[in-house]
Specification:
alpha/beta, Aldehyde Dehydrogenase, Chain A, domain 2, six-stranded mixed sheet, 21 strands, globular, binds nicotinamide-adenine-dinucleotide
């Protein structure tokens, strides 16, 4: 059993002052894994005070100096890669090989990319006789979820710190392993006291942080429901808000698309991290006439995705994060079964390990546009297939949810796919399976949020513009 009972405040690891704790369980063995002491209002107070005290000095350092700290943090994190990957496997349930690459190595690379992009993002510009300077927004409250914990923390921290902001991070209490490693990395990199403070806790710790008058901006990643509350709380206090929220992303297969490639992409995107991915493709929109062919290919494709212990090299799907989340996802599947959609793959196809928070992947076909499964984020291994007759209909289906985080379009003509991609109201669209680009803006339309992370765009979220008119 690991005890995470300290917070990083003003350059020191300090024991939590509150009494509240959470116990988390290994998602595969269901054994108790760790206890986490929640930050109290007093811990939040101390963290914000330290951040404010550090701000004048940190914001006046050069961009190059701040970028050098980011690189030092990346190096210190890299030395802890295996430990962080192991913690993500135990807490979140992602298979080890994928966890190491996606949950650890990719975010470490993002610390370095952000450092490399900082000078460009923060350069002063001229508009006629005005000098436009880019100033840090101030003290940032960063609130993050558990599903890709280091990635989500990095997207906020690297950008905010290099912009000259000081940060109080309130990460999810459900994935504390990478947070402990990050605190160690910040200390090892000798980040000046108070520039980064980390107070772990649950929702009430987050609420205390947002309500604190010393916070200038809230950068939140998590559910749309929590995002609404946070935006309301921050809005009432006139704090800037950036929100990275949920999704119900669709992949459109045009009639001339490569069927096998479409199916492979949809399954790997939907089932990655057992569906616990905000930008997962959770709807596949296919031509009505080709539905039987897609149905068959999906069934076969799913059989190749081995579910099992995430520490086994052969496993592609691990368990979900917790018993509570498994119940939530299972309830969605049961309701879809009762609704009598075409069950392309159901739980009888899969043998689940005897222990662990596993859920068998499910695929439902001919799901109506207004169905719960077509409208709501399940956050589990569940794919909804929808059909269309005309391109207009396909675009309307893809755009027909409150969300707009990601999407995909497939066609033998990349030009045709691009024309359709331009019509999708979502923040990231992949044409014919083009890969993720960490330097491109990432974020959502509508209920998927506001603001962007990634590359120079992510840094811009943390700046205030100042125009200085010069005499002519
Ligand atoms: P969550 O909303 O329950 O919690 C996220 C974080 O916010 C946690 O640290 C939690 O303690 C805190 N929190 C919750 N309510 C709060 C409140 N009212 N005030 C202050 N803090 C509060 O989400 P989760 O279950 O941890 O994560 C899953 C969700 O995150 C999914 O909906 C997923 O789509 C979304 N997500 C979005 C992105 C993105 O980039 N768009 C990325 C990852 C996850």
């Amino acid at each position: 059993m690991i005890h995470y009972h300290q917070h990083l405040i003003d350059g020191d690891m300090r024991a939590a002052t509150g009494a509240a704790t959470t116990t988390i369980h290994d998602s595969t063995t269901e054994e108790p894994l760790a206890t986490i002491a929640h930050g109290s209002a007093a811990d939040v107070e101390a963290a914000v005070k330290a951040a404010r005290a550090a701000f004048a000095r940190w914001s006046s350092t050069s961009v190059e100096q701040r970028a050098a700290y980011l690189l030092a943090i990346a190096d210190a994190l890299e030395a802890q890669s295996d430990r962080m990957a192991d913690s993500v496997v135990a807490e979140v349930g992602m298979p080890l090989k994928l966890a190491l690459r996606i949950q650890v190595q990719a975010p470490i690379a993002a610390w370095r990319t952000t450092a490399a992009r900082a000078a460009e993002a923060l350069a002063e510009t001229r508009v006629a006789h005005s000098l436009v300077t880019k100033e840090p927004v101030g003290i940032v409250a960063a609130i993050t979820p558990w599903n890709y914990p280091l990635h989500q923390i990095t997207a906020k921290l690297a950008a905010a710190l290099v912009a000259g902001c000081c940060v109080v991070l309130k990460p999810s209490e459900l994935a504390p392993g990478v947070v402990a490693a990050l605190c160690e990395a910040a200390l090892e990199a000798r980040l000046p006291r108070g520039v980064l403070n980390v107070v772990v806790g649950d929702r009430s710790t987050g609420e205390a942080l947002i309500a604190h008058p010393g916070i200038d901006m809230v950068s939140f990643t998590g559910s749309t429901a929590a995002g609404r509350q946070i935006a309301a709380s921050a809005g009432a206090r006139l704090k800037r808000v950036a929100l990275e929220l949920g999704g119900k992303s669709a992949s459109i297969a045009l009639p001339d698309a490569d069927l096998a490639a479409v199916v492979k992409h949809a399954l790997s995107s939907c089932m990655l991290n057992s569906g616990q991915t905000c930008s997962a493709i959770t709807r596949l929109i296919v031509p009505d006439a080709q539905y039987p062919a897609y149905r068959e290919q999906l069934r076969g494709g799913l059989a190749n995705l081995r579910i099992g212990d995430p520490r086994d090299a052969g496993s592609r799907l691990g368990p979900l994060v917790s018993a509570a989340h498994r119940s939530r996802v299972s309830a969605y599947i049961e309701r879809a079964q009762q609704a009598s959609y075409d069950e392309i793959a159901d739980d009888t196809q899969t043998v689940l390990p005897a222990r662990g928070y596993f859920v068998a992947p499910a695929i439902f076909g001919r799901v109506p546009a207004d169905a719960e499964l077509a409208q709501e984020e399940v956050f589990g291994p569940v794919l909804a297939v929808q059909t269309y007759s005309t391109e207009e209909e396909a675009v309307a289906l893809a755009n027909g949810t409150p969300y707009g985080l990601a999407g995909a379009v497939w066609s033998a003509s990349a030009e045709h796919a691009l024309r359709v991609a331009r019509r999708l109201r979502a923040g990231q669209i992949d044409v014919n399976g083009a890969p993720f680009n960490a330097s491109a803006p990432f974020g959502g339309f509508g209920a998927s949020g506001m603001g962007r992370e990634g590359g120079t765009f992510g840094i811009e979220d943390f700046i205030e513009l100042r125009a200085i008119q010069l005499p002519q």
